[in-house]
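Run folding on both entries below.
>entry_1
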Amino acid sequence: MYSYQDYRIFQDLCVLLDHGDRLVLRAFHLSPLQYHLLLLLDREEGWRLIDLSERLLCERSTVTRLVDALEREGLVCRVANQEDRRSQRVTLTEEGLRRRDLARAALEKTIQQRLDAFSPAEQRQLIEMHRRLRAVLLAEIERSQE
């Protein structure tokens, strides 16, 4: 049975992972949230702001500010939504795609270095445990939205 102190280890781990990701992404002038937004986008179809806010679990105003900043840097653009003229979709620019892919490669290298502390069997076990915990957390979110 876990105690609150044990749970704090998970919280500390999340903070440390986030900090490490921030250090890597800083070289690409991206925050973790900006990076995650870029990961969702492509050059063709794009996402509506409301859909991005739901997927990123943040307020629409936060997503609007993120998109504004990324648009000023030439990484994303807003395009007319062919399905609903009242809204727009956000897509990646060529530069956004390039920077996202460079940042992803740097993060993947860092993640591999972090996971190298474990044997391949331990890595598989750790990832499987995290997948199960993620499923529990996603179910919690879905129940809270009902």
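>entry_2
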Amino acid sequence: MADAERMLSQAADMCEDGDFVGALKIYSKILKKNPTNTDALIDKGVALQNLGRLRQALRCFQKALAVDTKNITALVNTGSVLHSLGMFDEAIKCYDRALRIDKKCAMALAYKGLSLGEKGKIKDALKNFKKALSIDKDYDIALISKDIAQKILKENFTQK
């Protein structure tokens, strides 16, 4: 098992350096030996997502969830891919599942806010960004998105 951890660390370093293709080779080796390694499945999904291979990334996250239905990282990443595919309602369902497991998951709250914003539900989005910031006051996605949502609401109010 220590070998898999070492390989995961090596692949993570490659991802940090932007070598997602190289990292994918390592994740595939790990998964060949242990197809239910959730860390490798999730990290492979993230690498695929960074390469724009969204459907393949989604399959990795779904496999991780088949192994561990309560894996918050897999749920949030599944939502992120679904959001990227324009499937905002499905993404929101993933974030809600993650929030049922951990209601203080700032990432799930912020990402849910992004999907709600895409659906035009700016007030609901803003609530989620604020909740995320109450948990992590420096969470950049929530900070930036909250400011944008507030500007949109202000513009909509002044146009009426």
